[in-house]
Amino acid sequence: MQRWLLDLLVCPECRDARGLTLAGTGEAAVEDGELGCPGCGAAYPIRNGIPRFVPQQDDYAGNFGFQWNRWKTLQVDRLAGHRLSQTRFFADSRLPPEWLPGRLILDAGCGAGRFTDVAAQAGARVVAVDLSEAIDACRVNCANPQGHTPGRGEVAQVQANLLRLPFRDGVFDGLFCMGVIQHTPDPAAVMSALPRLLKAGAPLAYNFYEWHWLRRLEVIKYGLRRTTPDWPQGTLLGFCRVLVALLFPLTLVLAKIPKLRFFVRFIPIAAVHNPALTLRQQYDWTLLDTFDWYGPRYEQCQDHGQVAGLLQGLDLAEVDSRPGLAWARRPG
Ligand SMILES: C[S@@+](CC[C@H](N)C(=O)[O-])C[C@H]1O[C@@H](n2cnc3c(N)ncnc32)[C@H](O)[C@@H]1O
Ligand SMILES: [Zn+2]
């Protein structure tokens, strides 16, 4: 754990203003140690350089931990040789690349860190948080020096729950939360919990699953999902492998026929046909995304009009909500 992170931390239980004490050796960073709370006496371990604010066995996000360690580098532009995460990051976050250098940014639910890495490459200092062991994959990916740009910002990882984050209020220059909110038990609670961490005037970007009636027709996917999150991970992986081996070629054919393209969405795999990827990468992304369909315990949809109302109710400024995306600023 980088020592600079200590200035941002408070106990998630009692939020004692004195912060946390750090025990462990290492000049700039502590690999193994412990954080202690002078207020309530709670202790939080630092393992593998990452402070951990959740029990070792995470509650509902275990399949994410498996998934992001299994396909660690696939979506990290710098390590996989594409720019898809970068393109999506700047479009969805609306954080201008020229604004990022030196800013302190929170990646809320980082997974293997594909967006953390893009922000760091642009010069931001990023704190990446995840509930699951995906946080370890994020650390490996972001430490990997291959393709680091000059002026790259530092990255610190924290394993914690977005609903009980161990940070002081008003410390971040910006935050983004992508691909996460729909996979939590209470999306509105997550959206409501994060803004207080921002400085006055700081921006936030949320992405979420938009409710659409067509989802009702995806009966095979949602029928299977009734049980798949509970399957042993090896069984689920084998199941996804078979589905993708059988159905990916079919989706390729259908996608080439304009009149039939629409029906690809009813085939129960998450087909990725992006021409910026090699065919092998498309296949691997499809397998990863199919596991990401069947693994999560929660998949919750929201309506962007209601999301706008929620953010306005939190007294945020410049609220803008589109299907699946919302932006706002902390007032001031
Ligand atoms: C689909 S992944 C997206 C990861 C990354 N943002 C991306 O787009 O590649 C969702 C991530 O959210 C994390 N997550 C889910 N609920 C969380 C919570 N309450 N607190 C922190 N992280 C959470 C999961 O562990 C998982 O890594
Ligand atoms: Zn405490």
What distinguishing features does this structure have?
332 residues; alpha/beta; Rossmann fold; seven-stranded mixed β-sheet; four-stranded antiparallel β-sheet; globular; binds S-adenosylmethionine; binds zinc ion
Question: Could you give the order of strands across the largest sheet?
Answer: 7-6-5-8-9-13-12
Bound molecules: S-adenosylmethionine, zinc ion
Helical fraction equals: 25-40%
| Whole-number tally of structural domains | 2
Query: Count the helices. How many?
Result: 10
In percent terms, what proportion of residues is strand? Answer: 15-25%
**pLDDT < 50 runs, ≥5 residues:** none
Describe the structure.
The chain is an alpha/beta fold. It is 31% helix and 17% strand. It is built from 10 helices and 13 strands. It has helices at residues 62-70, 77-80, 84-93, 114-121, 134-143, 187-193, 219-224, 233-255, 279-294, 304-313; strands at residues 21-24, 33-36, 43-47, 50-51, 104-108, 125-130, 155-159, 174-177, 203-207, 209-210, 301-302, 317-322, 325-329. The mean pLDDT is 96. Bound molecules: S-adenosylmethionine (SAM) and zinc ion (ZN). The site of zinc ion has 8 residues, from loops.
